[in-house]
Description:
Layout: H1 3-10, H2 15-24, H3 29-46, E1 50-52, E2 62-66, H4 73-78, E3 85-90, H5 97-105, E4 108-111, H6 118-129, E5 133-136, H7 154-162, E6 166-172, E7 178-179, E8 182-183, E9 189-192, H8 206-226, E10 235-239, H9 243-254, E11 258-263, H10 266-275, E12 291-295, E13 306-309, H11 316-323, E14 332-335, H12 348-353, E15 360-365, H13 370-375, E16 379-383, H14 387-399, E17 403-407, H15 410-430, H16 435-455, H17 460-464, H18 466-477, H19 482-491, H20 496-503, H21 509-523, H22 528-537, H23 543-552
Parallel strand pairs: 1-9, 2-5, 2-6, 3-4, 3-5, 10-11, 10-13, 11-12, 13-14, 14-15, 16-17
Antiparallel strand pairs: 6-9, 7-8, 15-16
Helix pairs in contact: 2-6, 7-8, 15-16, 15-18, 15-19, 15-21, 19-20, 21-22, 22-23
Amino acid sequence: xxxxxxxxxxxxxxxxxxxxxxxxxxxxxxxxxxxxxxxxxxxxxxxxxxxxxxxxxxxxxxxxxxxxxxxxxxxxxxxxxxxxxxxxxxxxxxxxxxxxxxxxxxxxxxxxxxxxxxxxxxxxxxxxxxxxxxxxxxxxxxxxxxxxxxxxxxxxxxxxxxxxxxxxxxxxxxxxxxxxxxxxxxxxxxxxxxxxxxxxxxxxxxxxxxxxxxxxxxxxxxxxxxxxxxxxxxxxxxxxxxxxxxxxxxxxxxxxxxxxxxxxxxxxxxxxxxxxxxxxxxxxxxxxxxxxxxxxxxxxxxxxxxxxxxxxxxxxxxxxxxxxxxxxxxxxxxxxxxxxxxxxxxxxxxxxxxxxxxxxxxxxxxxxxxxxxxxxxxxxxxxxxxxxxxxxxxxxxxxxxxxxxxxxxxxxxxxxxxxxxxxxxxxxxxxxxxxxxxxxxxxxxxxxxxxxxxxxxxxxxxxxxxxxxxxxxxxxxxxxxxxxxxxxxxxxxxxxxxxxxxxxxxxxxxxxxxxxxxxxxxxxxxxxxxxxxxxxxxxxxxxxxxxxxxxxxxxxxxxxxx
Length: 562
């Protein structure tokens, strides 16, 4: 064979060729049936495929709407029908003409992901008109872990334009079948739900297609949860009826969740229920109708998808002692506490993770002033190593009116929050002397805690972002900053016990600074400004003496190894 002929065979064919072949000929029987027999036997045996609800798949044209976890999914679905299935595959797979030809013989036709693809819709409609079964993955791409993603409205459009019944299908376990190039014998489960039918509409609007999709996708979710898949975030319980707890409850309610707001006392829960306002902490802010105030002991924590701990770090041990054993294994936990947990100075999410059986723990960082978060929004950082929980919380908080960043730098973000508290206290303590001295005190403390974070595995960019510098600036200029006010009282010479009583609400920095000082000592980090501030809180040094040390403190310079 000539070189030119070989190059011609390896040249990618136009995508229209694959669509035309699928519409006119369908699968290639000489390739499809032998390959199907081999693949079906292999899938049933190697992956121990469990197929439930196959009786719900009707004869004739049918849309099989399924979640998408693995490249195996179309072939797993094909094992449920005694006839060929057709499915979309990303167009990149058809760049190699040999792979493209084989996939096309097996019933695949290309789709342009992330954009409207009228040709793939026309192919699917032609197949359904001929009485074929078409598989569609409404998520648009593979979601390899966690819960289901939000669907695209294409499945609703296809259901309306074709009038074909839609069978919701869930698949679990297929994401574990591949480890690099190695195919592992993972256990795969599939469940089909009852078929859904919709009146045919020749040219459905995007709104109508979206509405139909919103009816189809929950039926996929029902099959998914029946198989043991992680549920979406629908119900939340917030522990802490203060300003932050009320604000987070409002944001979650706006994001579409049913929220139980856990109060300490029956009288507080009754007042909130009657007044629909938390007059003690956020006067003038109406509670959303989706928020149900209760006492913490009345909440059934095993029945919620998200538990929010909106209490100070010093109260976390007591809160977890009350509810820790009641949190379900399939629930997630979000911690809003900023600081360190006594007596060992543990970061909040690490402390919680050791004491609950939750599927994942996250914390909330960034500049979040409670009232402003409700009234005008806020920019926050979702902090967790669990990618699925980052996605879920990001979607809910964004729907609730917040601007959301996310990071997996748990150590950096939580120590940045502790640094913010300590720096705000230092700034307030120095502010009566001069603005320059206040800035120097805050900057020195922030820099010292940054050294601790880096030594503990945190990242410098986290301190420079919303979770660090952004949060510090917001605290420094906020009129109601408890930490800055506490610092002003400390700088005036007031004893720490009196400061806490005067501020009335918890100023996390009063507990954070001593714990940071102990952490510096454990790590062998020289932190003269933060440890000096601790001596002021302990009554061992006057504010004036500490301020002299701030003036004279020089930043630690690291020497480069020879």
